Input
Amino acid sequence: MDTRAAAAAVDHRPLSERAALNKEALKQSFLDNLFHTQGKFPALASKSDYYLALAYAVRERLLQRWISTAAEYMQKGARTVSYLSAEFLMGPHLGNNLINLGIYDEAKQAMTELGLNFDELLAQEEEPGLGNGGLGRLAACFIDSMATLEIPSLGYGIRYEFGIFHQSIVDGWQVEKTDKWLRYGNPWELQRPEWAVQVKLGGYTEHRSEEDGTLTVRWIPSRLVSGVPYDTPILGYRNNTANTLRLWSAQAPESFDFEVFNRGDYYGAVMQKMSSENLSKVLYPNDEHEGGKELRLEQQYFFVSCSLQDMIRIMQGQRLPLEHFHEKFAVQLNDTHPAIAVAELMRLLVDEHKMPWNRAWQVTCKTFAYTNHTLMPEALERWPLPLFKKVLPRHLEIIFEINARFLDEVRRRYPGDSARVARLSLIDESGPRYVRMAHLACVGSHAINGVAELHTELLKSDVLRDFYELWPNKFSNKTNGVTPRRWMVLANPRLTRLVSDSIGEDWIKHLDQLQKLEPLAESADFRSHWREIKRANKRALAEVIARRCNVAVDPDSMFDVQVKRIHEYKRQHLAALHIIALYLQLKAQPNLELAPRTFIFGGKAAPGYRMAKLMIKLITGIGDVVNRDPMVRDRLKVVFLPNFSVTNGQRIYPAADLSEQISTAGKEASGTGNMKFQMNGALTIGTMDGANIEIREVVGADNFFLFGLTTPQVYALQAQGYRPHDWYEQDPQLREVIDMIRDGYFSRGDASLFRPLVDSLLWHDPYFLFADFRSYVECQQRVGETWVDTERWTRMSILNSARSGKFSSDRSIRDYTKDIWHAPSVPVELLTEHHVRA
Ligand code: GPV
Output
């Protein structure tokens, strides 16, 4: 059937009725869906039913764009970006889709007129938490920006049945609960069983020379898993583009089961089905990696193989020969989690599609580009050879072949330099053997990038130095960004209104336009509006805190916020040391003039990361003491807001006065929370790390609170032999703080509880808290002095926001397309409009 004819047929009630973007039509389809989809009437309907009815009403309005987009791309044979990521931390869809469709206010009106509380309906959505933190959220911001910039793109990942765990705090400790996000159904996805693919795992290989002299390899797997795609539309901001997020769910393949079943092994068949479905069951909750888990390697291979097979299907559907794979698709590897794609594409091209090795290798290298997201050595993925061989025997052979050819090239370039050969090898042979996934990604990609300027420089000079010397032109920097649609328009409607009333709405698509706010920083009237908005956002957050933490916080106090995964390198415990120092100061001088501060923490600890869990306990322990001490007289409050998530982030960033970005210099690849805070007018206290450096560069040194060692200083201190205990002995205030923790002041007298933390700091301090303590405390003193000058603080806040244009993910995506992807925009014509005009 002809696409346009079919669209015309379903269009008989075009924009005006079924999918019209106005209030009355929304009401109508909301009610239709309540009855016909949910099967409920108002007396029986739950809030979730109402949410779903509205979600389906909105979905009907997406589908027209989705179909039009697919048709447009197909007709144009458009070059497509495939973003491969083990994580997509999307956050709730409903509000964002309403914003991008431009019908947020209409929907709110419609629900209100039906007597429903719109915000309550939005809050019903269980957020798809299919990621751990920055890396997964970056993927979400990037697909938003690609849709907004009308770049044909597919996000490929895993449809985890359980996303990142739900965190609650019990007796000051983190407690994890499984995230049953699919419990009430997911209105945003469409299952596409007709595009399911088969994935092989395990087994062995057979090598045969054919009669014509060619060598063929057969992989005889021990297991088969079927990958079923679930598609979610990703809308651009107020355009006609709806790209696709395609997530793979693992299912037992019918035929495979059936064979076992026929042999009479019913339980064996059921077990096999369950073990297949385990593949996409749960997201590994470790940020920055904890290695060696077989299931994790299987997950990575599963989604990568599904995605590459899907791209081949798309090419075949458009009758494109596979020699042109790299012309049709630009495939971005989001860290090394999908790096097995390099070997898998080779296998598909060479083994399954009979392409000569050299040709296939050219295609492969032109297809992939690799983004590195960390400098932490323990986070660089390596798989033990025996494990790798067990799961992916054919891929190990292919990796050996890639490696042999690559190392030949290295030897030609550097004759006699065997140390360099060993350093560059895809196989680590210094002890037990490992496959080095970052090396596979580097060798199989034509472009390699870091995520902030400092990070890229450190990749070139340190972590990937040998690769940089070999191929300097492959390297470039792509500083991260975040989408202003979710992180300003949706999260901060008050600020959005003020900004749009002042400079128009262009900034939402062209964030550099926020510069136009700069002169308004000098208007007392504008500053007072700016403050009112911050104050309203803080009141709203204070209500959340009262509900979740049972602590009353004052919206007029400074909200000093650190939200991110809990990690030693991110140094939440450095902030804790400062709070204790302030507390001691108040105890020593009860009448000290101290502007009231509320310290707000949030973030999840990997369930197996004991030190991180202890850091949470320390923060809550400090809160228990400080919040109740009458001598403090409410000048300090410390809260740990449980379950930091996209949803909670949307409430927190707009309410922050001070953004804590205090990682050890050289450890945080970029950071992205730092950008969300800046956009929403928080000032940053931070180290010379990651994107902090670039934030400081754009806002100006006067509008940024800088402290701490620089990366070269950290390296130098490390080299000369860092002895944290000496720093402890030489700083009386630091000593008092540490002693207090050690002696059980924040653990009800239990002097053993925080021992591992205290001892680690005293004797190792791998992240240089003691070396940065004095500088941090003094910097916080300057923060306090600035805060009391309200007008000055507001000016700085406005300038921070006004100068945040660089950190839109639209800019990041423009950089990627210009230097790496070369994928032109393809504006979409709505099929219905075409029909209506015809
Ligand atoms: I590798 N990041 C993450 O969230 N998880 C990971 O497994 C790895 C990196 C983060 C970095 O820590 C941040 O600095 C960075 O901003 C973010 O990735 C996005 O690039």
In short: The chain has 36 helices and 25 strands. The CA atoms of residues 541 and 651 lie 6 Å apart.
